[in-house]
Amino acid sequence: MSFSEFTENDYEVIAQEYEKLRLSAEKRCANAAEMEVVRRAYEFANAAHRNVRRRSGEPYMIHPIAVARIVVDDIGLGYKSISAALLHDVVEDTDYTVEDIREHFGNKIASLVDGLTKIKTVLDNEQKTHGTDISQQSLQAENFKRILLTLNDDVRVVLIKLADRLHNCRTIEHMPEHKRDKILSETMFIFIPLAHRLGLYSIKSELENIWLRYKEPEAYEEIKARIDKNTQEKGAEMAEFVLPIEAALEKARFKFEIKKRVKTPYSVWHKMQEKKISFEEVYDLYAIRIIFDADQQSAETERDQCYHIFSIITGIYRYMPERLRDWVKHPKSNGYEALHCTLLSPSGIWVEVQIRTRRMDDIAEKGIAAHWIYKQHGYLGEGDYEMDNWLERIKDILVNPDVNALELLDIIHNDLTSTDIYVFTPMGEQRTIQKDATCLDFAYLIHTEVGNKAIAAKVNQRLVTLSHIIKTGDKVEIITAEDAKPQPEWLKFLTTRRARTIVTDYFKTERKQTVDFGRKTLENALTGLGFEINERNLQRLEVSYGVASREELYYGIGIGSLSLEHVQEALKRNSGSRLSWLRKMLRLENRAEEKEGTETIIIGSNDPGATRFSIASCCNPIPGDPVIGFKAPDGMITVHKKACPVAESIAATHGDWVVVPKWLEQAEETSFPVRITLKGLDRVGMLNEISHYVSRVMGVNMRKLFLQAESGLFEGYIDMSVSSRGILEQMIKELSSIEGIENVTRSDL
Q1: Residue among 34, 93, 142, 237 flagged as catalytic
Q2: Interatomic CA distance for residues 680 and 744, integer angstroms
Q3: Predicted local confidence at residue 145, as pLDDT
Q4: Which residues does 195 contact at the CB level (< 8 Å), separation at least 6?
């Protein structure tokens, strides 16, 4: 921020932006009294931020107005939230206090502003409190818990913060690169999953696209250009595809509208990365959304009416049964309800069709805010119960007194990004549990004592072990015995936090004996492997296992949650570029506060005086990749790809470690490991042609080549060393032109 006298033009711009907000707010406010509160909040904030400018040079007041517009237009919140959005930076950036806000606007708006101020404070300061001061760490944990508890007490705080984050990301080009990286990583790690869980799909999609535009700019531009070109070429075909559907629904007397959409660049990129496929293999690029007014007088339920439309459109076009998604019968945990199917157009394009009632569409677009509105009017769909259940589960996580702030952030992130499945009790009652959960996790979901006494299970009438992983639609019965009790080895396969916490707490009463047992077990293992039992080796094991203390190491081994299988590997490998090294950094002394102008680090030089660096083995960046760096106290820079999930989690919580690495122009003899995967039609001489091109034509050293063929198709990978991304991309392009090769992509080693 900077200070300079506003000009007449500045005041005019502010007034114009407020006028846009006023028009939107009037549609949402119930009466003139509510609109008057919004007007007073605007005038109060405008006076508080007078002569203050953002990095872009525009008046600062433009930001809170923009946040308030997102709050009302994209989320659908009311006058108190609009007012809080206008006031959200006043306490943080001016001399006004929360008490001043309370005096002028009442308790609720003051409470919202207070919550927003605390979120900003924690996100700004979380990096500065990860030292060895336990009391400080505990205080930070409590602050973080109190903020996240607003998901239950008043989720509007989080919704307004999402609006604030969206506008900051929209204007992120004005940020220096190191701050941009920190903000975008934090956004991907926390706010995008949160927007998804709260049902705010438009906000989620926009944040994802901004993230991709700055983290992988070349991929973003290429995919966007291909989407635009494809849309222009296929636009007429899509219009023809919709015509018979419209005619059939009108004949059936449905009141409806049809919206067309194309996948976003991020969703295409993510699918290409996740499935290891090319752009051409993304079949659901196009979608149409059928939004209809449910007939409340009909004998058919909303669900039945969705199925009726499904039967009509699948009578016109062939559909792909394996891609049918019924989120009407089994809504997502964020309340999302819709029926998805994929139809084949006459021209051979696969088109996803989403069928929703008007209520379902409101909840899909505005998430939890729409959920509240329908709930207040006495209407609850299946999805509304799922949203309430999720909020209750979040509260269970937050009330645990033993979790520090950084652990809490990991837990919340994992919960936000987990995928739920639906299973049934023997009586046919549906229960929701996270994907990859075991029968024992399900037992603890039913009741603590059912879990503690469990000895086996039946899944779909078949006897299985407690470690059996359950799937959507399974009918699960838990077999118990009165003399059964929890076993330490259960922690090796339990996946849900609730179950793991119950079992861990059970063994806390025997902690001292367990710690002694774990110490002796580890010492015997080290002796057997020929390692000395010394401080250096024990510290390296602490780092490798990511534990906070020696006692935690022994305890984990004693109860079986930490396996000894990897001790030898852990003591031999260089952990400098791995996540374990970063966990160790959490316990180092506090770093100095982040400076405004973080230095640019040149990496890639082998000169004795050059900056020491290591390439992160989790993502293996090569020259030309967009990269982010983390600086250790000894000066070592660990370099990750900007889009690396490990780097995302680190930058999200420890922005003061971030540096801006720049690749040095590499000499030909400097090379980096990389892998490419290949798929295609097998033919005689294919292997020779591939290896000849890579080694002879490109002069690249192949470290490993693996190809296998079956039924006329082949797939495999090549591990090689290249000096730059440019050479790699040229190789991928040339290999793709070889007859029979259908797909060549860069993949993880």
Answers
A1: 93
A2: 9
A3: 55
A4: 162, 201, 203, 204, 207, 367
At residue 693's C-alpha, the angle toward residues 690 and 699, to 5°, is 130
Distance of CA 576 to the CA centre of its chain: 26
The alpha carbon of residue 54 and the mean position of all alpha carbons in its chain are separated, in whole angstroms, by: 28
* Residue 124: predicted pLDDT: 59
Q: How far is CA 275 from the centre of its chain?
A: 17
Name the pTM for this structure: 0.68
- Residue 729's pLDDT is what? 87
Structure-block tokens of residue 627: 């990269």
Residue 133's pLDDT is what? 40
Reference 230, options 282, 290, 289, 288; nearest CA is 282
How many of the other CB atoms lie within 10 Å of CB of 481? 10
pLDDT for the residue numbered 451: 94
What is the pLDDT, as a whole number, of residue 410? 60
- Asked if 198 and 368 touch (Cβ cutoff 8 Å), the reply is yes
Q: What is the pLDDT of residue 584?
A: 35
Amino acid at 446: I
Q: What is the pLDDT of residue 191?
A: 84
Burial (CB count within 10 angstroms: exposed 0-12, middle 13-18, buried 19+), residue 39: middle
Tell me which residue of 568, 582, 567 sits closest to 614, measured CA to CA.
Answer: 582
pLDDT of residue 592: 31
Tell the residue number behind the tokens 């995302």, with chain if given. Answer: 648
Beta partners for residue 290, in sequence order: 258, 355
- DSSP class per residue in 36-96: HHHHHHHHHHHHHTTTEE-TTSSBTTHHHHHHHHHIIIII---HHHHHHHHHTTHHHHSS-
Place of tokens 């009438």: 461
Q: Tell me the pairing of strands 350-357 and 286-292.
A: parallel
Angle made by CA atoms 49, 54, 59, in degrees to the nearest 5: 50
The full DSSP string for 471-499 is -TT-BEEEEE-TT----GGGGGT--SHHH
For residue 107, give the amino acid letter: N
Q: Which residues contact 446 (CB under 8 A, 6 or more apart)?
A: 425, 431, 478
Give the pLDDT confidence score for residue 290 in this predicted structure: 96
Catalytic residue among 92, 177, 551, 719: 92
Low-confidence ranges of the chain (pLDDT < 50): 126-143, 383, 405, 573-597, 667
* Alpha-carbon distances, residue 665 vs 279, 668, 669 (angstroms): 31, 10, 12
What is the model's pLDDT at position 386?
55
Q: Are 94 and 41 in contact (CB under 8 A)?
A: no
**569 catalytic per annotation:** no
Angle at 23 between CA 17 and CA 29, to 5 degrees: 125
Distance from C-alpha of 476 to C-alpha of 432, rounded to nearest angstrom: 12
| 391, 416 Cβ separation under 8 angstroms | no
Tell me if residue 92 is catalytic.
yes
Taking the C-alpha atoms of residue 466 and residue 477, their distance in angstroms, rounded to an integer, is: 11
H-assigned helices in 335-431:
358-366, 368-376, 382-398, 405-417
| pLDDT at site 136 | 40
